[in-house]
Amino acid sequence: MTTPTPSQSARSVLVTGGNRGIGRAIAEAFLAQGDLVAVTTRSGGAPEGALDLRCDVTDAAAVDAAFAEAEAAHGPVEVLVANAGITADTLLLRMSEDDWSSVIDTNLTGTFHLAKRAAKGMLRLRRGRIILISSVVGLLGSAGQVNYAASKAGLVGIARSLARELGSRSITTNVVAPGFIDTDMTAVLSDEQKAAIKTQVPLGRYGDVAEVANAVTWLASPGAAYVTGAVVPVDGGLGMGH
Ligand code: NDP
């Protein structure tokens, strides 16, 4: 019996929001398998071994410049992980225009900028992997997160459209939908909220950032070459059936 080929030669990988939380774990996982990793954030602090680039994903020109730097250092970007994201939670009637637009601009429009810039190079290469970090909330909905849920559901629409647009060039586009993962983003929840969430999760615990990174590196691996337009949950069973 043959085993699947593990890693191919080092690839140029770009991870947004890779200075902490889920994005950092993803960047570290690619670094550990020998890939060339560029990390983009607004505040810096990429893991050791990664190219540390400043880029606000809401700014298309900044995204273009970050890709140009990553390409100059590592060659054409073959794997994009669009992970940068924010929340601005509040109930609908209290949600300001800014609460709405800041989340949509970062999570959804930012991903549009990234995917558009990445696709340019990938179409030339005739291969590529685009992985978008959504959320279980995009599929289930969540009281107090109309903006965030809309942005994360929108990523599924982007991914499935790109899967159709780019598939003929061997470019796959997939979504990873984490459940509740221990990071700065969820640290703001109260103990009662955390306990209530755990009762809804069949596995009865929060996820670890490395568990999300595992799904991402798999989607970028040769073993996932025939997977596109998929939404891969990493949520302890929270979103089952969605
Ligand atoms: P964190 O809050 O820990 O990190 C968010 C990252 O995004 C930071 O690196 C931040 O860097 C970056 N970022 C935010 N805004 C921008 C911007 N405008 N331009 C560039 N970078 C930006 O979040 P998590 O690690 O928890 O989440 C990562 C992703 O996973 C997000 O998309 C989130 O929605 C998603 N997710 C998280 C879950 C969880 O339970 N934690 C569950 C489901 C999904 P900087 O501030 O330096 O720019």
Describe the structure in your own words.
With 242 residues, this protein is of the alpha/beta class. The protein has one domain: Rossmann fold (3-Layer(aba) Sandwich), CATH 3.40.50.720. It contains eight helices and seven strands, in the order βαββαβαβααβαααβ. The chain has helices at 21-32, 60-74, 97-125, 136-140, 146-166, 184-187, 191-200, 209-219, and strands at residues 12-16, 36-41, 51-54, 79-82, 128-133, 171-178, 231-234. Strands 3-2-1-4-5-6-7 form a seven-stranded parallel beta sheet, with helices on both faces. Strand 1, helix 1 and strand 2 (36-41) form a beta-alpha-beta unit. The chain is globular. The termini are far apart. Mean pLDDT is 95; it is low at 1-7. NADPH dihydro-nicotinamide-adenine-dinucleotide phosphate (NDP) is lined by residues 16-17, 19-23, 41-43, 56-58, 83-86, 106, 133, 135, 178, 180-181, 183-186. InterPro entries: KR_dom, NAD(P)-bd_dom_sf, Sc_DH/Rdtase_CS, SDR_fam. Pfam families: adh_short_C2 (PF13561). This is Beta-ketoacyl-ACP reductase.
